[in-house]
Amino acid sequence: MEMKNIVVIGPPGAGKGTQSERISERLGVPHISTGDMLREHRDLKTEHGKAREYMERGDLVPDKIMYRILDHRLKKDDTEKGFVLDGFPRDISQAKHLECIEKIDIVISLEVEKKNILKRLTGRRICENCGETFHLNYKPPEKEGVCTKCGSDLLQREDDKKEVIKQRLKKYREKKLPIKNFYEKKGVLRKVDGNKDIESVWNEISVILEEFIK
Ligand code: AP5
What we know:
Blueprint: E1 4-9, H1 16-27, E2 31-33, H2 34-44, H3 52-57, H4 63-74, E3 82-86, H5 92-101, E4 106-111, H6 114-122, E5 124-127, E6 133-135, E7 154-155, H7 162-185, E8 189-193, H8 198-213
Helix pairs in contact: 1-8
The structure holds BIS(adenosine)-5'-pentaphosphate.
């Protein structure tokens, strides 16, 4: 069977995780989020747990750590039919690294205005147990502060505080153009208007996926 390797890029809070989950379900391939993997390492206090200090400042984690985590993950059997990668690559060196290990079929770029990004990040809440993502206004849980899926408490991410958001956005802006140009030249970049509501963004992505798997 042909592999389906998808990358989702976009600013912090663009909806990469939200839409990657749906792509993963639609294509039957794993959702691989480098942010989630780093948070797991942090919580388990592994050797890569030191990445925490970079994340807390809103800085990019050094490539050496990222490559070890990603390469290890992509070797797992569940990526045989493909994957949807969220949070990697963040710059040209990472894009070139990825190119050396995997062929990328589609890069979905979620285009979102700054005012929407700020609302999304400050209103985001995550389940401390299962990791399900909610939003106070756009995807509220049935009961305030409680995960609708598993009933555990909802928390705000440490890096969703205003000062850290500012730094994350700065880092994103510094790197975004070269990476988009890189994939545009390869003919795999597909821009999606990420300002719309979750369902409308998904509808636009679905059209791209249907064309691809036809
Ligand atoms: P990471 O976890 O990847 O953070 P990010 O890229 O900043 O992206 P987010 O997870 O904040 O947002 P998202 O786009 O997934 O949005 P979501 O779907 O949750 O990385 C964290 C840190 O790890 C980095 O800062 C860095 O330090 C490090 N790191 C990770 N990868 C790295 C790498 N490759 N190299 C170096 N360092 C790395 O949506 C956000 C909110 O909005 C949610 O509440 C959601 O419900 C809501 N929402 C989503 N879509 C919509 C919509 N269409 N309308 C309204 N609300 C919406």
